[in-house]
Amino acid sequence: MLSTRTVLKENDLYLVGDASYAVAQGESGLYRRDTRYLRRYEWRLDGERPQTLAQQERYPFWLHEQSANANVGYTMRVGLRRDLTVSAGELRDDLTVTRYVGEGPHELALFLSADFVDMFEVRGWQGGLGERDVEVQATEGGVDFAYTAQDGLRVRAAVRASPPATWDGEALRWTLERDETRVRVSVFPLEGDETPAPGDPQVLAAEYDALGARLAPAWAGLDPEDAAVVRRSVQDLRSLSFRTPQGTFPAAGLPWFVAPFGRDSMIIALMVHRHLPELALTVARYLAAHQGQGYDPVTLEQPGKILHEMRVGELTRTGRTPHRPYYATADATPLFVWLVGELSAEHPELAAELRPHWEAALGWLLSDGDPDGDGLIEYTPDPGGITNAVWKDSGDSTFTADGVDVSGHVAVIEVQGYAYAAYRAAAGLYHLLGEPERAPEWEARAERLREQVQAAFWWPERGYYAHGLNGDKRPLRVLVSNPAHTLWTGLFAPEYAAQVARMALEPELWSGWGIRTLGEGQPRYNPVSYHNGSVWPHDTAAAALGMARAGLHAEAAQVARALFGAARAADDRRLSELFAGFAREPGLGPVPYPAACHPQGWDAAIGLALAPLLRGVGEEALV
Q1: Which stretches make up the Putative glycogen debranching enzyme N-terminal domain (predicted)?
Q2: Could you give the residue ranges of the DSSP H alpha helices within 273-326?
Q3: In a 3-state reduction of DSSP, which class is residue 303?
Q4: Taking the chain, what is the end-to-end CA distance rounded to the nearest angstrom?
Q5: Is the pLDDT of residue 617 over 60?
Q6: Is the peptide bond before 189 cis (omega within 30 degrees of 0)?
Q7: Which of 128-132, 234-238, 397-401, 460-464 has the lowest mean pLDDT?
Q8: Spatial separation of the C-alpha atoms in residues 498 and 487, rounded to whole Å
Q9: Within 13 Å and on the Cβ side, how many CA atoms surround 575?
Q10: pTM over 0.90, yes/no
């Protein structure tokens, strides 16, 4: 695994490199959705890797680089100016090689290798297909790599070079005789009968600039450092998006999750729908189009259920994974109703357009979503798939106070909050449809759920809520971030919301950078774990939004300030998917989590979502 990743992306094409943007090891590569096309893409000058002088991302799809001959010392002999872009279906690499000292030719080489492996195999999926039989064909000045998948899909990486290069079996090579030579390499990852279609980086840059100008009011008046975080948020949301028939859909994160996700996309949409309504509407319409229709014990599809994840790689297409799509989540379905309700307040036509879908989702909440019929939304751990079908979906994230994994029908707190928000949304949707007589049923259902959660989940000794109920209906009295996250949904009455906020900001949970997923001293606590002591910015951001919703504005500002502080501590002004739960120390930034996605969709939404909480708040009062 790479210790540092770099990523350039546009639509469903993305380059994952090492710290120097080179593709040569680990998970690095040129990807299209769930397939890695190239596993090596690496320049050499006179047999050595050029020495990088500076690398700057002009945009999330555009790297500008200045390099020199290896071991440059005090005087550069050969300089390389490079612009590497990913646009539409093309990776384009423009180099200008300039000789400053000496005479005679220099050799430039680009080492290339293709493997066409599935993303799941890159991640270590057991039972992969092994090494592919890749065809390599030299073309006029370039080279083609091709592979026919087991389902018959033909995929190809067409590499074109100008001026023409010579392919020697492992590299394209140029002999440079002039004082200055310009070289362009284009790579086109193609499926089926597609033909190369060059992109236009300048047009794409203008699109980014126009989006930034449109959303500039979101950071107007902020401290310049905070404004930089929001601008990065906007750029990343645009970069993460990829095209679907319904519009551009936000990927969950790079490099592993350039795919439609239910929960992730809806949390993004709920956070930014007022700023980016077109993105949020796409999320709702896409998920409606792929809503569960029948029962499938492999994919866990059920009527009305909203998908968790959808993949298109070879392993999925040939039935080796269930992601076609996979419905293993308990929370996406109530989130869908909540999202449609929020969007319909500004886009009333959506209530009627998606009525069959949000009503089917409500039907799932009252049937398959509540397998034991007790009024709570539950999941049953699936030993052959996702054990915990909620946002903390790792196998060890949900357990009893004695440290025993949950079993049976498990009800976790934030899913009940999503259901509460869904029932309230349903009442509003029926009002919009001119059927107010149907609203009281859903308002009453929301109130009953609030009362039920209060009776079953409240933890009076802590002034907090339990993580959930185990299959035996015993509360999971473990100190976790989930109740603070649930504040966002409005589930808790005001007096209890204030207690939850207070507990979330106590040292056991509050790291100074965010709310730990699991409190210090709890069973399984580990600050460098996926869900048992780390800090997930989106989880903390949900708590901040909930505090603001409950009128706890000072607390909300404190949390927002901490998250912006974490982003400001990063060179690229980004929040990662998660970071370690170590306590904040003066003058130091948060400790990174090694395998975190960067950028990540949830966290890209935070800048836009929390910016209003910062206005007029001084950092010195909130750290």
Answers
A1: 8-177
A2: 277-289, 314-317
A3: coil
A4: 34
A5: no
A6: no
A7: 128-132
A8: 10
A9: 34
A10: yes
